[in-house]
Structures are given as structure tokens and as C-alpha cells.
Design a protein that fits this description.
This protein is an alpha/beta fold and 408 residues long. It folds into 2 domains: 4-32 and 279-406, Lyase, Ornithine Decarboxylase, Chain A, domain 1, CATH 2.40.37; 102-271, Alanine racemase (TIM Barrel, Alpha-Beta Barrel). The protein has helices spanning 18-25, 34-45, 64-73, 82-90, 107-115, 126-139, 177-185, 206-225, 251-261, 275-278, 307-311, 398-406; strands spanning 4-7, 10-13, 16-17, 29-33, 52-57, 76-79, 98-100, 120-123, 143-150, 172-173, 190-196, 232-234, 268-271, 282-292, 295-298, 317-319, 328-333, 342-349, 356-359, 381-385, 388-393. The strands form 3 sheets. Strands 4, 14, 15, 16, 17, 18, 19, 20 and 21 form a 9-stranded mixed β-sheet that branches. Strands 5-6-7-8-9-11-12-13 form an 8-stranded parallel β-barrel, surrounded by 6 helices. It has a 3-stranded antiparallel β-sheet with strand order 1-2-3. Helix 5 (107-115) packs across helix 6. It binds ligand LLP. The site of ligand LLP has 19 residues, from helix 10 and helix 11.
């Protein structure tokens, strides 16, 4: 499924020429394929053989128009802040479709989650569980609770996006899980609904999912022995995707493998994919401002797409218009005053100054991680559907930025 392809030598998203979008909305711009997002969500939804919920991980791409599309496909949502929760509400999504994850929820966030009747608050420490119990008591409601387990599994991806090793800040140590579960049962205002884990992102090997599921099974065997009934097993994020040559994990295989390990369980299976739903459905389009020796200096920087600078992530960068000119090996760098400001360390392009190029695989953790560093206004987002396209987030202006300081 690749919605970014060449038609007559010019890059298109679905049936729309990228250059038509760039002439209307300028550069840099994020462009997404609605068809690919829908298809990626369907791939998860249709693979569930047993009852389950696919909760899109809002942190990957939180634009409310994207959330509406995914809600329309039948997804639930995984949020990690009051901001993401409010985005879901703005998109018309109701609380029972939402799981709240994250290691540092504030009292206000917990209160908002409880009063919005969300499906589960996945807690990550005993202190947090105590806080949820207290806040629920103050509001006069029972809080639906999940417990995130840290199974001590190391996945082969960048250390910053591994989250399931025992020294990571996430979750409750597998060995303490049962003690914590028993404690929850004795606390007021809590309903223990499930257990969760998320061992990290950009997972390219099915074995890691199998191992994580086996750890969950260990806990479930113990809860069974105590006659504790749970409603869900949340296995966290989805599979890794191909940026350059990484293995793309098929959602069907991920779900099959997890369901195989958990085959006798009747709890709902929850998955929280983000990257694999939107990653390859988005590109960042930018224009070459200058060519200087081996550098192409473009109008997008690390403030627009920080993944290369932060994780040394590799993205494929391509010419928007193919030409017969000889390809040159270029480093794609931005206008920001740091040498870490690059989008690609090595790309073969035939574009020249003034030409458009596209950074592929930028749909997940792209726009959402953008910033105003160097007082740069953030890029707009455009959604393509067939041969039509529409603005789903306008370009920020410097006036927008200044207004936070001038309107005091
Ligand atoms: N569930 C939880 C609790 C998570 O923390 C995450 C991602 C997901 C689900 C979604 O995982 P996915 O399906 O996308 O692998 N900014 C980094 C990725 C950080 C991921 C954080 N957690 C990047 O650009 O690679």
C-alpha cells in the first residue's frame, strides 16, 4: 500500500500531484493519504479473530480530522494527556472509546478522565493508583483501572523508544504485579478492568509481541487462581514500518501471534497502534532553497521533523519531479542554526535549487513533534482523498506565536 507514487514522472499522493498542493499551500507542508490511513486501520480491525479494540495511539498524529476518520472506521483511542483527550472530544469521540496511558498523569488529568467515563486509565505506579483512587473518591465515581506491566523485554530499536526494560520508567515490574493487583482490590473507588504493556515502538520482529503476550499470560494465570476477572488485555503499540529497508510487520500476523499465545483467554484484546496506521501515509514536502557543495538546504528543519536529529532516524527523501539530470548525492539540511538539523544524511536526488522534494514516512511522530524553535511557524497539514485535497490544519503565522506574548 503506497499512496505516494509517480504518475508521468511527478510524485502524487493518491491521484493528486504534490506540486499542486505545494502551489496552493506552500512549503514545508505535511500531506496525508486518507485512503492509506483507512486501509491501515482496516488491516488491524479486520484481523481480530476474537473480540477486541484497536485504539489508535493519538500521539502519533493528533489532528482532529484524522481522529474523526479513524473513529469512523471503528477505532478506539489511546491518549496520554488531557490535551489528547480533549482532541478526542473535539472530534466527537466519546469517553468509552478511550484509554488513558502515560507515566505522569496529573490530578487534573485523572479527574477529567474519570468524569468523562473513559474506558480505562492505565496506571503505571502504586503512587498513581493511590492518586486515582483518591481523585475518584472526591468526584464520587468509580475509576476504571488498567495496570501497565513492565515485562523487562528489550526490543531492537532506538533506546529512546524502548519502554519495556526493567530500568525504563514505564509500568510496574512484572514480579510485583500480583501484589499491586491485590492492593488495588482493597482500595476504594477503583474497578480493576485489565492489564497492559507496551514494550516500545518500531518493533520489527514478531517474537517481541509473543514474548510480551507470554508475560501477560503469566499474570493472568495468577489472577485466575485468585478468581479475579478482568475485561481486557492491552498489548500496547503496533508494528514497525519500512522507512528505508526495515521489516514492515503485518498487523494480521501480529494479532495472530498474540491471539495464539492468549488463545484460551476471553478478555478483550486491546492494541494501540500509531506509527503503522499513519507513518507511511504521510510525507513532508519541502523546497530546496540552496545547493552548497554536498548540502541541499531546504525550507523544512528539525523543528518540522525532529526524528532524524533526535533518533538518527532515516527517512527516504525523493524528488517530486523526476528528471533526466544526473543524480547527486546530497545531505538534506534545514535552515536551523544547529549542525544536527538534518532530514537525511545521504540522498540521491536530481533536483536543483527551487525544486520540491518529499520526505516520506513522515505521517507518524512528524507534525505532532514539530516545534517553534528559531521562532519558525509550524507547517500546515493537508489531507488527500482520491483526486481531492483539503487543508486540515492551517499554517501557523508568526503573529500566532507573538500573540501568546502580546495578548497578556
Ligand atoms: N501505546 C503506548 C502506551 C505508547 O507509549 C505508544 C508509543 C504507542 C502505544 C504507539 O506505538 P506505535 O504503534 O506507534 O509503535 N516519537 C518516536 C516514537 C515514540 C513512541 C512512544 N509511544 C518516534 O518518532 O519514533
Amino acid at each position: 500500500m503506497n499512496s505516494f507514487k509517480y504518475i508521468d514522472g511527478t510524485l502524487h499522493c493518491e491521484e493528486v500531484a504534490i506540486e499542486d498542493i505545494a502551489s496552493k499551500y506552500g512549503t514545508p507542508s505535511y500531506i496525508y493519504s486518507e485512503r492509506e490511513i483507512r486501509n491501515n486501520a482496516k488491516a488491524y480491525l479486520s484481523s481480530l479473530k476474537k473480540p477486541g479494540i484497536i485504539c489508535f495511539s493519538v500521539k502519533a498524529l493528533s489532528n482532529i480530522h484524522i481522529l474523526k476518520i479513524l473513529a469512523n472506521e471503528g477505532c478506539g483511542f489511546d491518549v496520554v494527556s488531557a490535551g489528547e483527550l480533549q482532541r478526542c472530544f473535539e472530534a466527537g469521540i466519546s469517553g468509552e472509546k478511550i484509554i488513558f496511558s502515560g507515566v505522569g498523569k496529573s490530578e487534573q488529568e485523572i479527574a477529567l478522565a474519570i468524569s468523562s467515563d473513559i474506558y480505562s486509565i492505565n496506571a503505571e505506579s502504586v503512587s498513581e493508583i493511590n492518586r486515582i483512587s483518591k481523585v475518584a473518591g472526591e468526584i464520587g465515581k468509580v475509576a476504571p483501572l488498567g495496570i501497565r506491566i513492565n515485562p523487562d523485554i528489550s526490543i531492537a530499536s532506538h533506546e529512546y523508544i524502548q519502554t519495556g526494560k526493567k530500568d525504563d520508567k514505564f509500568g510496574i515490574d512484572l514480579r510485583d504485579a500480583l501484589t499491586v493487583i491485590k492492593k488495588v482490590l482493597n482500595l476504594p473507588n477503583l474497578e480493576l478492568k485489565g492489564i497492559a504493556c507496551h514494550i516500545g515502538s518500531q518493533i520489527s520482529d514478531l517474537d517481541f509481541f509473543k514474548k510480551a503476550a507470554a508475560s501477560m499470560l503469566e499474570i493472568l494465570n495468577e489472577t485466575d487462581a485468585l478468581n479475579i476477572n478482568l475485561s481486557f488485555i492491552d498489548m500496547g503499540g503496533g508494528g514497525g514500518i519500512t522507512y528505508i529497508d526495515e521489516k514492515h510487520l503485518d498487523p494480521k500476523e501480529i494479532i495472530e501471534q498474540i491471539e495464539k499465545v492468549l488463545h484460551e483467554r476471553s478478555e478483550l484484546l486491546v492494541l494501540e497502534p500509531g506509527r503503522s496506521i499513519v507513518g507511511n501515509a504521510g510525507a513532508l514536502v519541502t523546497r530546496i532553497e540552496y545547493l552548497k557543495s554536498s548540502f541541499a538546504i531546504v525550507d523544512a528543519g528539525m523543528n518540522d521533523l525532529i526524528r532524524p536529529a533526535l533518533y538518527k532516524a532515516k527517512h527516504k527523501v525523493v524528488d517530486v519531479n523526476l528528471s533526466s539530470a544526473k543524480k547527486k548525492s546530497l545531505k538534506i539540511v534545514g535552515p536551523i542554526c544547529e549542525s544536527g538539523d538534518y532530514l537525511s544524511q545521504e540522498t540521491e536526488l536530481n533536483s536543483v535549487e527551487g525544486d520540491l522534494i518529499a520526505v516520506l514516512g513522515a505521517g507518524a511522530y512528524g507534525s505532532v513533534m514539530s516545534s517553534n524553535y528559531n521562532s519558525r511557524a509550524r507547517a500546515p497539514e493537508i489531507l488527500v482523498n482520491g483526486n481531492e485535497f483539503r487543508l486540515i490544519k492551517r499554517r501557523e503565522s508568526v503573529a500566532d506565536l507573538l500573540s501568546l506574548e502580546t495578548s497578556l
